[in-house]
Design a protein that fits this description.
Length: 438
């Protein structure tokens, strides 16, 4: 409301006073002494704020100051700005209302001055901004919380991924670049299951779906393809978000960390515990375990399995004549030749000092005998250099094909009998074991 500069509240006609009384605005007018004296006008709703009447407040203006928090600081601020010659002043302060709770007020003051610039009257309009201050405080707290979480997300070494129910990436933290070589924005709306090995994707998808359907977190180890093509081992914890209304999961939060080095160490430790360091073959326990598992798997798909057992002829003579170092060199040579000649799924084991065995899946007795013959010729032709001398050796083989549902011990025994026959008939030969009597 514009107030004529020449006429203050103290000189307003009665009809204007009645108009002001009907306004919801919280108004006051005072002389230069502000609230301490000379309170010209105060609206009824201002007096009500502190539980006083207009008459009480006008007769004792200091009643208002008793309800103003930090009144001295507020007065000091006002007087400083008046002294600076300001004509429009806005103050913020708190008051303790009649009910005892604290309200935040915005006080807009119009300063009336005379020709000399001296203050004649202050006309104030108060506004209760408590709800606005609370809302602003909440917004500030929310913004501060967002800044904290953004700082955490952008600086944590683990990768944070958010994907929808279809598996499409909706957010990737910056650390994904160090982990998988991708910029976060390049993964947006991309199916993350595409980065899994093809044989792993269905299993991982099923695990995530089952865990999400029950609203349970899922921790698992999996591989994901790096931008450069190789795979990285990740330990991943997936947490689904269920929509309370539909009880369907809409988001999946995944936190992943690189465990590639750990998996390599575990693989190395497993190799050390299952592999013969001299020949690279599985040790006896690991080989027999693979043989047992292989036979069980073959039963389910009616797969043929053949077994080869072989050992080095006159190996004791080599050790006695040249020493154990020479014997180890011959063993290492046998291991190298076998590893280069076999298929990836063939199983090669060292089951005794100089005795070895091969498990050949999908191979007939004749196929196994042909492979054994090729190895025999290779061993017969190879020469091993030892301190300037060239050592030669030969190998004898026993071959057996598994009969219907034949047990592991029986199959091993028949292949071993084939080896015994090869030794008995002059060594350096392949002997096929006869079928087991029905």
């Amino acid at each position: 409301m514009d107030i004529p500069a020449a006429k203050g509240f103290s000189t307003l006609p009665s009809d204007c006073d009645a108009l002001l009384e009907g306004s919801p605005a919280i108004l006051y007018a005072t002389g230069p002494g502000w609230w301490r004296n000379d309170l010209h006008y105060v609206s009824y709703n201002l007096a009500t704020l502190i539980g006083a009447t207009r008459a009480q407040l006008q007769s004792t203006p200091t009643l208002w100051l008793e309800h103003v928090c930090d009144a001295q600081e507020v007065e000091a601020c006002l007087f400083a700005r008046l002294a600076a010659g300001e004509s429009r002043i806005r103050l913020y302060y708190r008051i303790v209302c009649a009910e005892g709770h604290v309200r935040h007020m915005q006080d807009d003051i119009a300063v009336q001055r005379d020709a000399a610039g001296d203050v004649i009257e202050l006309i104030g309009s108060l506004a209760d901004i408590s709800e606005t201050r609370v809302a602003l405080a909440r917004l500030e707290a929310l913004a501060d919380s967002e800044r904290r979480y953004r700082f955490i997300v952008e600086n944590v070494s683990d990768a944070i991924l958010l994907m929808d129910a279809d598996g499409e990436c909706r957010f990737a933290s910056p650390s994904i670049r160090d982990l998988l070589g991708h910029r976060p924005e390049t993964l947006h709306e991309r199916g993350l299951l595409e980065l899994l090995p093809p044989d792993d994707a269905p299993r991982v998808q099923r695990l995530i779906h089952d865990a999400s359907r029950h609203g349970e977190p899922l921790r698992m180890e999996l591989r994901m393809r790096h931008r450069l093509g190789h795979y990285v081992w990740l330990e991943t914890c997936c947490s689904p978000y269920l929509n309370p209304a539909s009880e369907r999961y809409e988001w999946i939060l995944a936190v992943a960390r690189d465990i590639t080095d750990r998996k390599h160490r575990e693989h190395r430790l497993h190799e050390l515990s299952t592999t013969d360091s001299l020949t690279g073959a599985l040790n006896r326990g690991a080989y027999l375990s693979c043989l047992r598992s292989g036979l069980e798997a073959a039963d389910h798909v009616s797969q043929r399995v053949s077994l080869v057992i072989f050992d080095i002829d006159h190996f004791k003579t080599i050790n006695d004549t040249w020493g154990h170092a020479a014997g180890d060199l011959v063993l290492a040579c046998v291991g190298e030749i076998c590893r280069t000649a076999l298929r990836d799924h063939d199983v090669f084991g060292r089951i005794g000092g100089e005795e070895f065995s091969l498990m050949l899946t999908s191979q007939s007795l004749n196929d196994a005998a042909l492979l054994a013959e090729r190895l025999r010729k290779k061993f017969e032709s190879v020469r091993v250099e030892f301190h300037g001398e060239w050592l030669s050796f030969s190998v004898s083989f026993g071959v057996a094909e598994r009969q219907s549902r034949e047990g592991m011990e029986s199959l091993l025994h028949r292949a071993d009998m084939g080896l015994y026959a090869a030794k008995h008939n002059g060594r350096n030969r392949v002997h096929q074991a006869p079928p087991q009597p029905v």
